[in-house]
Amino acid sequence: MTIKEITHLYNRVGFGISFQEASSLQKQSRTQVVSNIFDASREMTPLSVDVSEIKSQVRGLNLKDRKKIRSLIKDSVKKIHQLNIAWLYKLGNTQELLREKMTLFWANHFVCHDKNILHFQQYQNTLRKHALGNFKDFVIAIAKEPAMIKYLNTKQNKKRKPNENFARELMELFTLGRDHYSEKDIKEAARAFTGWNHDLMGNFRFRRMQHDYGEKTFLGKTGNFNGEAIIDIILQEKQCAKFICEKLYRYFVNDSLDASRVAEMTELFYQDYDIENLMRFVLTSNWFYDEKNIGTKIKSPVEFLIGMHRIVPMQFEKERELVYLQKLLGQHLLFPPNVAGWKGGRNWINPNTMMLRLRLPSILLANGEIALDEKGEFEDDFQRFNSKRNRQRRLKVIPDWETFHANNSNTTTAQLQEVLLTSPLNRGTKQYLDKLADQDLKEYCIQLMSLPEYQLC
């Protein structure tokens, strides 16, 4: 494989790669490199924060004690923010690259939010567990998660008064896409999921007395269907495989769909809904490495931040500033904007976020300042954050330049450029980089990350 192909692969399954690491893989075949990536993600390491105290309080909770419940919710939300930071650092340091990148993808597919850290942490690890597994098992597991049961109101879905929220989103957002089912299908599916509930500790519970055991007609089939049967019928529709393949193609290959490639993926995925087999097919296909698919995707805020961290490891002294940066960049992990999640693509960029992205490398890696000279949303957000109202502020970040130099001891500026910039360079950028070629590698790295081309992968 070429350096360019290896860099492209690692940009999509992870968050980039150093030149020395890429060089060490050059003599291996594409199949071997991809297999190694899957092998590294074979096991699942749960993401967790300490919830022992909250667990003990929940076990002895009196549901009539409203004051205690409010206090628990407040403590739980703090833990969810800790989980957010833990996930970011996990993304920046894990060897299970593909599993974590797939988890990031599925978190924006099976979108969910919960204020209960016990249930939400469990939900996140269910995403992680099934990220490369069987899609049918995945959908059933997600449908039974307490966080999802609450988020889409399955808890209120009872025989005498069905709630259609989960049934609708199951088809529209999770499996089939809009316009591939009828309103009657939604109503019948909702009946099948009646009685799905959970206990306080996050265990799934089927409430038999709340379930509708009557005959249902769904997607042209009639029977006494329960929730699992509804999911099975949905997956019999080839549209389900196509819908998932389109989303995976946009995320891992190109925002612009290639109908013929999606069709190839769909044929394979529809056979057994094996996510690993599908991803292995994509990552070893010649077309995945076509020029039109390299350096064409706008990095998400998380990809942008973690990509920098992977090159120059950094530690935030105040974790709340990392939360603040996520909000300013437009992607606060674990806090999706709505049930449809983040739109991605060009939606990541607007005048405010672009300005911040271009300045962020010097802010984080060269003790740069965030100033309040700019007008508009950026200024307003920062003023809310900055209670002292000083006109300039330095984020307290400790970059690990020693590790950077150790990982790039024999790397030239040209080689560093090769792995950091994968999109075509215009004439002005080339001339600018030529002038910087004699700079120290550290300074050159900061300048490369400050270019518009670094926003693409």
TrEMBL record:
A Pfam family: DUF1800
Protein name (Swiss-Prot/TrEMBL): DUF1800 domain-containing protein
